[in-house]
UniProtKB/TrEMBL annotation:
Cited InterPro entries: CBS_dom, CBS_dom_sf, Diverse_CBS-Domain
SMART domains in alphabetical order: CBS (SM00116)
UniProt keyword terms in alphabetical order: CBS domain
Residue ranges occupied by any CBS domain in the UniProt entry: 8-66, 73-130
Species of the source: Pelagirhabdus alkalitolerans
Protein name: CBS domain-containing protein
PANTHER family reported in the protein's UniProt record: CBS DOMAIN-CONTAINING PROTEIN, CBS DOMAIN-CONTAINING PROTEIN CBSX3, MITOCHONDRIAL
Keyword Iron-sulfur attributed: no
């Protein structure tokens, strides 16, 4: 069985709670990503900010680009370990209505698996269609 380690993005760049909304927006644009993990100096996950968070929790509430990520980040974080099977990862994503799952080892971030990673992995035990249907059904 394939695990999230087989398909996750491993070169994940974290931001800190004190980085600004603008920092996150620029980072997402430069790397063509829809979220950024918020970590401490040792890569312990403190939260996550998505492109949706920038809009709904930031700009829609009148926050300017100088506001810090700590003000808008999601702190109720859903994670899995690197040995989590892809089917289980999709179950977790569907249950929590998320499109990205942070992968940790010893409580430190080592990667991110996103819906698109599951779709792009042609050798996955799950068909791309099944993965998307399972996750999107509840989102």
């Amino acid at each position: 069985m394939k695990t999230v380690r087989d398909v996750m993005s491993q070169d994940v760049i974290c931001q800190t709670p004190n980085d600004t909304i603008q920092d996150a927006a620029i980072h997402m644009k430069e790397h063509d990503i829809g979220s950024v993990p918020i970590c401490d100096d040792e890569k312990h996950v403190l939260g996550i900010v998505t492109d949706r968070d920038l809009v709904i929790r930031g700009y829609a509430k009148g926050f300017g680009s100088e506001h810090v990520l700590e003000e808008i980040m999601t702190t109720d974080i859903v994670t899995c370990d690197e040995h989590c099977e892809l089917k289980d990862a999709t179950d977790i994503m569907a249950k929590h209505q998320i499109r990205r799952l942070l992968v940790v080892k010893n409580h430190k971030l080592i990667g991110v698996v996103a819906v698109r990673d599951l779709i792009l992995d042609e050798s996955s035990d799950l068909s791309a269609k099944e993965a998307v249907e399972r996750i999107s059904k509840t989102i």
